[in-house]
Specification:
Elements: E1 2-7, E2 11-17, H1 24-32, E3 37-42, H2 43-59, E4 64-69, H3 78-90, E5 98-103, H4 105-117, E6 123-128, H5 131-137, E7 142-147, E8 150-157, E9 162-166, H6 175-192, H7 194-201, H8 209-226, H9 241-250, H10 257-274, H11 283-292, H12 303-310, E10 321-328, E11 331-337, H13 342-349
Parallel strand pairs: 2-9, 3-4, 3-5, 5-6, 6-9
Antiparallel strand pairs: 1-2, 7-8, 10-11
Helix pairs in contact: 1-2, 3-4, 5-6, 5-8, 6-7, 6-8, 6-10, 9-10, 9-12, 10-11, 10-13, 12-13
The chain binds nicotinamide-adenine-dinucleotide and zinc ion.
């Protein structure tokens, strides 16, 4: 078992280990006390892990209610969010009660946003069940839902009180959903340096998954500690995301977040070299890492479609778009670019 402490507005632990779900009740009581809990989860996760988590909480004397919504990115919207709020109110959750977000990034983002806003904010615990949620979305306090205009356009910063990552839950993920997490892991590798990158790029790390998750969470914790509210260096975590979000949007979310980010990283690394923003071409390294991790290396959208979609990305200021440019493995920079150059950049990357 491994533990990483995140120091943000509030300090909390990310506990990573095999078989932790069974003891999640005890861990939660130890951290937040014996309050009532609302489990928020999706239908797939509920069918595999819902009972186990509910049992663990009940055994610790926690009164549990549960809200289950249809799995998938299309549920991460205002409608589901409102249903969750009404559910919390109907079940009379009070200020000192908690939300338990059980699932992937979609569950974590929407349940976290509900926790941030219900009664002006209640505590919540993240129990990530996807590789992506384990290394990325469950840590750092960004919560959100999508609007018609784009991804994550309504949200809040709200840190969890505890993150419980049971690595055993990853065993039931499909290869595609596991690959989504691998894309974010490759991102951490590109940000951090050769050692982590090579490990993930090999595609051969499942035996060391606990260490890999802990390493990625450590990197995220360090970034969040220094820039919790995303006004500076935290933006580095958006490597591949401007184009990635555009791909998600163009595909009507048929292409999942991780797959889209994978392509986003490939395209921006290629474009950066071709447009002479960097001296070194690392795009082949990224390409090989994607292939080894069962991730896509091309998509069917035109540069025009993608640049149009990227234009409405929320990371856009009035005059510039901040792109994360990989100069080398372990050396990325934030570069404000002109939105009018979007088409040129995306064309060069594809
Ligand atoms: N808040 C953040 O900092 C942050 C960071 C990265 C990504 N995100 C968000 O995370 C979301 C993507 O998260 P995701 O990839 O986890 O998607 P997801 O939550 O949709 O999960 C993917 C699929 O896997 C299923 N699933 C989950 N756990 C499972 C398990 N253990 N076994 C079998 N099936 C399981 C789910 O039901 C779903 O169908 C996106 O909305 C993205 O914007 C947020
Ligand atoms: Zn992401």
């Amino acid at each position: 078992m491994k533990k990483v402490t995140v120091s943000a507005t509030k300090e909390y632990d990310v506990v990573i280990g095999k078989g932790l779900l069974e003891d999640c009740g005890k861990m939660i009581v130890k951290t937040v006390g014996k309050s009532n809990a609302a489990i928020i989860t999706d239908d797939i996760v509920d069918s595999i892990y819902g009972e186990k988590v509910e049992k663990s909480l009940c055994e610790c004397g926690i009164k549990v209610s549960k809200f289950v919504f249809k799995n998938g990115e299309e549920s991460k919207n205002l409608e589901t969010y409102c249903e969750i709020l009404e559910f919390l109110a109907e079940n009379k959750l009070k200020r000192n009660d908690i939300i338990v977000a059980l699932g992937g990034g979609v569950v974590g983002d929407i349940a976290g946003y509900a926790a941030a806003t219900y009664l002006r904010g209640i505590k919540f615990v993240q129990i990530p069940t996807t590789f992506l949620a384990a290394i990325d979305s469950s840590v750092g306090g960004k919560t959100a839902v999508n609007l018609k205009a784009g991804k994550n356009l309504a949200g809040a910063f709200h840190q969890p009180s505890l993150v419980i990552c049971d690595t055993q839950t990853l065993e039931t993920l499909s290869a595609d959903r596991f690959a989504d997490g691998a894309a974010e892991a490759i991102k951490y590798g590109v940000l951090d340096g050769e050692e982590l990158f090579e490990k993930i790029a090999s595609g051969d790390y499942i035996a060391e998954i606990e260490d890999i998750i802990a390493k990625c969470v450590e990197i995220k914790a360090e970034v969040v500690k220094n820039d919790e509210f995303d006004t500076g260096m935290r933006q580095l975590l958006n490597l591949g995301h401007t184009i990635g979000h555009a791909i998600e949007k163009c595909s009507n979310f048929e292409i999942t977040h991780g797959h889209a980010v994978a392509l986003g990283m490939l395209y921006i690394s290629r474009a950066a070299y071709k447009l002479k923003l960097v001296e070194k071409d690392i795009s082949d390294k990224i390409l090989n890492a994607l292939i080894k991790n069962n991730l896509p290396v091309s998509c069917s959208f035109s540069p025009e479609e993608l640049s149009e979609a990227a234009g409405s990305d929320k990371k856009r200021n009035a005059d510039t778009i901040n792109f994360i440019i990989p100069k080398d493995i372990g050396d990325c920079v934030i570069k404000p670019l002109n939105p009018q150059d979007l088409l040129k950049i995306i064309s060069a990357g594809m």
